[in-house]
Amino acid sequence: MANLVKLQLGKNGLTPEFIGNLKTIFANKGTERVRIGLLKSASRDKEQMKLWAEKLIGELGENYTFLIIGYTIVLRKWRKARVPSKV
After folding, report:
1. Does the 4-77 domain belong in CATH 3.30.110.60?
2. What is the CA radius of gyration of the chain?
3. Which residue among 6, 15, 60, 87 has its CA within the 20 to 30 Å range from the CA of 21?
4. Nearest by Cα to 4 from 23, 39, 32, 26
5. Residues 48-74 pLDDT 10s
6. CA–CA separation, 52 vs 73, rounded Å?
7. Sign of CA dihedral 26, 66, 17, 4
């Protein structure tokens, strides 16, 4: 089973540094899944979470999908390109 990495998204939202860090985690650690917890200081709006998840998928590429569970975004890297999930 691959490593599971947990990150937190705070009041700064999706910054280029956060996205770069995420790309590095997927590239260097051989990670398949990353859980991103949304802090209260960021937002508690489900629509905003969905927009952020879609933006992350757009930045990362076709081999990634997302799933929203509560106030957590779970990103998964696949070997082949997938159709993004609709939540």
Report:
1. yes
2. 12
3. 87
4. 32
5. 899 999 999 999 988 899 999 999 999
6. 9
7. negative
Residue 80 corresponds to which tokens in the numbers above? 């082949």
Task: Please indicate whether residue 30 or residue 17 has the higher confidence score (pLDDT).
Answer: 17
Please report, for the chain, the start and end positions of each structural domain, with discontinuous segments joined by +: 4-77
Q: What is the pTM of this model?
A: 0.83
**Nearest by Cα to 36 from 20, 14, 17:** 14
Bigger pLDDT: 81 vs 65: 65
Q: What is d(CA 61, CA 45) in angstroms, rounded to the nearest whole number?
A: 25
Q: How many other C-beta atoms lie within 10 A of the C-beta of residue 22?
A: 21
